[in-house]
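Board notes (copied after class):
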Amino acid sequence: MFGSLANMQPRQLAAQVLQFALVLSTAFMLWKGFSVVTDSGSPIVVVLSGSMEPAFQRGDLLFLWNRRQETQVGEVVVYNVRDKDIPIVHRVIRRFGGGSKPLQLLTKGDNNAADDTELYARGQSFLDRKQDVVGSVAGYVPYVGYVTILLSEYPWLKTAMLVFMALTVVLQRE
């Protein structure tokens, strides 16, 4: 396998490395394009826990939309707790303000007994719609995101996958 890599001409090797870089940059540009279109820093998220069952299962891939700022009770939103970068997917159970006043939301997981005030940042009783909410769920694909969960729970799997992808691109024949 590595013998064919050693037999490559420098120009051919450079072309393969550039092709791999092109694949990575295309994925990055698509992500940024989705971010601009949806007005969300994270337009796609994976459900990491069972707190929203039966509506969403662990591993479901969610597509977010953040262009509508008037969030309604019953809508499922994704938010980040201040000073933490963990997206939480929960349903809005109460809303306060709106219009000229800042919109504040209270959320709860469908499978949880209590609301999310214990999850919010210290001293925070509600979510600020503009500051804390990443987006509202616009659609989902069941279980597709489970790969992401496996990659985060088993770091060696991430390295193996990246090595496999790199070798596939570099060693492919045209």
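Comment from the instructor: The chain has five helices and seven strands. The radius of gyration is 21 Å.
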